[in-house]
């Protein structure tokens, strides 16, 4: 047996046996909201700022009205949905008959990944299962109602996850609906006022464990509590496992939709409601999940051009959201045959082009002391801590070429003002505690660094 000599001889004996022995113990989280809510949110999520939501499923086949098609047609019997079915499908046609028509023959996960990368997004969230119960992977808990057994005969989750990870730096996440509208086990539990728990123990929870262990998503975007409490879903038990023992325990982030009473109260980050955009700073990390199509999360064949938000609308949403401490999760709905409609692709690529110029005012930023300007409307602020820069994003280019900002207080001889995407420093005049006036460069429309909102980077601001 040889003696240890040299620098290694100075190491503590435990270190020679294994470094982890000297590292602090990993925190363990109890299955209580008090313990789970104390878990720090992994830093990558706040730094990412922008993600893309993808709503895709059997509802993409009728592609009429809403992704809630089945519910509105069968449960609420809304007239437009009933008439649509009477006019286009034979008597006795069931929602389940749409399953084989969900074909995905044009689904190219590499193309999707390339479009996602071009959007400037830092994460993507795919609907692994919506309220209809159809899973986009071959779940052994969803026999004959999944994309491997019916329709595409492909594991859509696995294919997109592989392409996103191989071709981009995006974090991959999965949406999962806790409840299912017409699952007999869930309906039985609901009839029993959730005193029985057949559905979560045999279907919903096993699915969650399955997608985490199989696909290792870094976001679990829960939804659809079915008016049942978190105790029915055993949400805290699942989250304790997710944070303590799952393969993504160090990097995974979760939202706040884990049962009645949890939304905007418990979980990793808050969504509060669909299209939530408070317009002011919140004390807790939050996300604005919203749709490019104003009226639906899933693809609609009956959508009009005016139903789609413009790129100006979307840039405004992003800037407002980030300045108030939130992330923007912008939704698209692919077609039943696996295409990202060209209008969605255009919006995504436009956002990417904008972020190419203005990304420093978005990624990795923190909220500044003021979220929007007190003098000029449609000016929103962020702060870049690494550079010590205050970013002022203004959405309207003033006709006069002069922009007045009421919030920043300049330091004579020190403050510099730069327009993102433009080389020369800008001239400015201080107004003391009342802000400053900035002379914008005289540019033709083609010379502008971008078309839909511009960033001023201010250094050495008081």
From TrEMBL:
PROSITE patterns: ALPHA_L_FUCOSIDASE. Its EC number is 3.2.1.51. It catalyses: an alpha-L-fucoside + H2O = L-fucose + an alcohol; a neolactoside IV(2)-alpha-Fuc-nLc4Cer(d18:0) + H2O = a neolactoside nLc4Cer(d18:0) + L-fucose; a neolactoside IV(2)-alpha-Fuc-nLc4Cer(d18:1(4E)) + H2O = a neolactoside nLc4Cer(d18:1(4E)) + L-fucose. The record marks 289 as: May be important for catalysis. It is an enzyme of class 3 (hydrolase). Residues 371-459 form the Alpha-L-fucosidase C-terminal domain. InterPro entries: FUC_metazoa-typ, Fucosidase_C, GH, Glyco_hydro_29, Glyco_hydro_29_CS, Glyco_hydro_29_N, Glyco_hydro_b. Residues 25-360 form the Glycoside hydrolase family 29 N-terminal domain. Residues 1-25 form the signal peptide. GO terms for cellular component: lysosome. GO terms for molecular function: alpha-L-fucosidase activity. Homotetramer. Belongs to the glycosyl hydrolase 29 family. Alpha-L-fucosidase is responsible for hydrolyzing the alpha-1,6-linked fucose joined to the reducing-end N-acetylglucosamine of the carbohydrate moieties of glycoproteins. This is Alpha-L-fucosidase. The lineage of its organism: Eukaryota, Metazoa, Chordata, Craniata, Vertebrata.
